[in-house]
Automatic annotation (TrEMBL):
Cofactor stoichiometry and binding remark: Binds 1 divalent metal cation per subunit. Can use ions such as Zn(2+), Mg(2+) or Co(2+).
Reaction equation(s) it catalyzes: 4-(phosphooxy)-L-threonine + NAD(+) = 3-amino-2-oxopropyl phosphate + CO2 + NADH
EC annotation from Swiss-Prot or TrEMBL: 1.1.1.262
Cofactor requirements of the protein: Zn(2+); Mg(2+); Co(2+)
Pathway terms, separated by semicolons: Cofactor biosynthesis; pyridoxine 5'-phosphate biosynthesis; pyridoxine 5'-phosphate from D-erythrose 4-phosphate: step 4/5
Domain of life (superkingdom): Bacteria
Subunit relationships: Homodimer.
Stored Gene3D superfamilies: Isopropylmalate Dehydrogenase
UniProt protein name: 4-hydroxythreonine-4-phosphate dehydrogenase
Source species of the chain: Sulfitobacter pacificus
InterPro entries, per database record: PdxA, PdxA_fam
Function: Catalyzes the NAD(P)-dependent oxidation of 4-(phosphooxy)-L-threonine (HTP) into 2-amino-3-oxo-4-(phosphooxy)butyric acid which spontaneously decarboxylates to form 3-amino-2-oxopropyl phosphate (AHAP).
Species classification: Bacteria, Pseudomonadati, Pseudomonadota, Alphaproteobacteria, Rhodobacterales
Note: The active site is located at the dimer interface.
Annotated compartments: Cytoplasm
Length: 324
């Protein structure tokens, strides 16, 4: 029995940013390929964007080449590109929650979220979450989620994310790293269809500590954790010196790299494939992707935003949803 077609729900994100225009451009690129449903105020789409209002996600179950299906929400007033309006904050948050509900209730295949502006959400609606990922985890009722940045060239997972560098050794614990490895392994298996994932574990210190001369974490616990999990059947290598993990021959030996902190993970993927990187949240009970860029207020409304990351995020959400 074939699975019924379902759309990828796309939350509007910050209206004053480039989210509406890259969503419209992604629709133009993928209209014949992926069923889509945009959640937001249709007045915020670029002028001339072909769209049609729908009352339910089922009305967007098939590709809609002529007009973008929109589940409309009145945001109260139009957007001013480049200037976040706190009045829009409650509706921006509601569009995320509505997208999650659509996926969890089986009315959408996956959720792709456009970038938000956290200060505007805090100023306008008292938004208390550090970011998108944490809010999605709260909506889903899960504690441990993992941020993966993925492209055709590389997949990376930072074990710690938006914290100061001096806090990394404090927050990076055997429990934290084990959970990141477990969630990444399950995501590669269940979403990406990799039966036996190969994970490369980066060292925390230069040269992976070089036997303790450049840091002790590798010797004191990271080596032991890797060895223990190898014995449990995980396909791990490391800890490896991060400066030799990302050239072409090294990347061919693993399916994803587990990195110890934000820049150790994001610098290589943004250098290798800046425009096509996609943010995938692992550990949620639904598929969520996002373009790997922010609101870009400086170019919003000028018609020059590159939609490639949003195109890839929608395409990946569709593919992962079908795999699942």
């Amino acid at each position: 029995m074939s699975r019924p077609a379902l759309p990828v729900a796309i939350s509007c994100g910050e209206p004053a940013g480039i989210g509406p225009e890259v969503a419209a451009a992604a629709f133009a690129a993928l209209a014949h390929e992926v069923p889509m449903l945009w959640l937001g105020d249709p007045r915020h789409l670029p002028e001339g964007t072909p769209h049609r209002l729908v009352n339910h996600a089922s009305e967007a179950a098939d590709p809609s080449p002529d007009a973008l299906p929109v589940l409309a929400q009145d945001f109260g007033r139009p957007r001013q590109p480049g200037v976040a309006d706190p009045v829009h904050a409650p509706q921006v948050i509601e569009m995320i929650a509505r997208g999650v509900a659509l996926v969890q209730d089986g009315h959408a295949l996956a959720l792709c979220t456009a970038p938000i502006h956290k200060k505007a959400l805090k100023d306008g609606a008292g938004f208390s979450h550090p970011g998108h990922t944490e809010y999605l985890a709260a909506l889903a009722g899960v504690d441990d989620v993992v941020m993966m940045l993925a492209s055709d060239q590389l997949r990376v997972v930072p074990a710690t994310i938006h914290i100061a560098l001096d806090q990394v050794p404090l927050q990076l614990t055997p429990r934290t790293l084990r959970h990141v490895i477990e969630i990444t392994h399950a995501g590669l298996r269940d979403l990406f269809g990799i039966a036996a994932p190969r994970l490369a574990i980066a060292g925390l210190n230069p040269h992976a500590g070089e036997g303790g001369t450049m840091g002790m974490q590798e010797r004191s616990w990271i080596n032991d954790l890797v060895t223990q999990m190898q014995g449990e059947g995980y396909g791990l290598t490391g800890p490896l010196p991060a400066d030799t993990m990302f050239h072409a021959a090294a990347r061919a030996r693993y399916d994803a790299a587990i990195c110890m902190y934000h820049d150790q993970a994001l610098i290589p993927i943004k250098t290798l494939d800046f425009d096509k990187g996609v943010n995938v949240t692992l550990g949620l009970p639904f598929i969520r992707t996002s373009p790997d860029h922010g609101t870009a207020f400086d170019i919003a409304g000028k018609g020059i935003a590159n939609p490639t990351s949003m195109i890839e995020a929608i395409r990946m959400a569709h593919r992962l949803g079908q795999n699942r």
